[in-house]
Amino acid sequence: NQIQNALPEVHYHAGFIVVKDNQIENFSDPQYMNIKPCKTDEDDHESVSIEELQLEKAHLHDGIGDVIHIEAVEAKWKDLFTNVRFPIDYSKASAFINGKQVKNFQDQNIKPYESIVIFLDKNSDVTSYMEKAVTVEHIKEAEAKSEDC
User: Fold this and answer.
1) Distance between CA atoms of residues 66 and 136, nearest Å
2) Is the dihedral angle over the CA atoms 33, 43, 71, 139 positive or is it negative?
3) Helix (H, G, I), strand (E, B), or coil: what is residue 128?
4) What is the pLDDT of residues 17-70, one digit of tens each?
5) How far apart are CA 99 and CA 34, in angstroms?
6) pTM for the whole thing?
7) Vertex 78, ends 111 and 31: CA angle to 5°?
8) Nearest to 92, CA basis, from 52, 66, 119, 73
9) C-alpha distances out from residue 95 to 15, 26, 30, 72, Å
């Protein structure tokens, strides 16, 4: 099932942390990383599968587990967790984007340089974890280090 790659060039980054059982989940493990060969100009004219398009929406690179790479339009927060195979019960989770609580965060489009803090349980000290939110400076450092190509 292939579709022609005629979409606009998209590549931006955002930050995230997930708090579960009063601990920040570690997404820097290789199992969460998207490892793919570098693209060439010829690759842009090839067809891509539905699965590849899904992965382009939101993924992690370079062993950096708190900065998301977005390379497709309409990427939502739930796309990240689908792609890293990290199940979340959204009915029990709460989230803050750039310090503001957001309902149904999983359906929100990911915006460049925004930072989300997701709580999977109700017992966490929200204030202390909000202080650990990924900063724009950290996202820019991760961009500069990117080994992708």
Assistant:
1) 12
2) positive
3) helix
4) 999 999 999 999 999 998 765 554 445 545 678 888 888 899 998 899 999 999
5) 28
6) 0.85
7) 105
8) 119
9) 13, 17, 25, 23
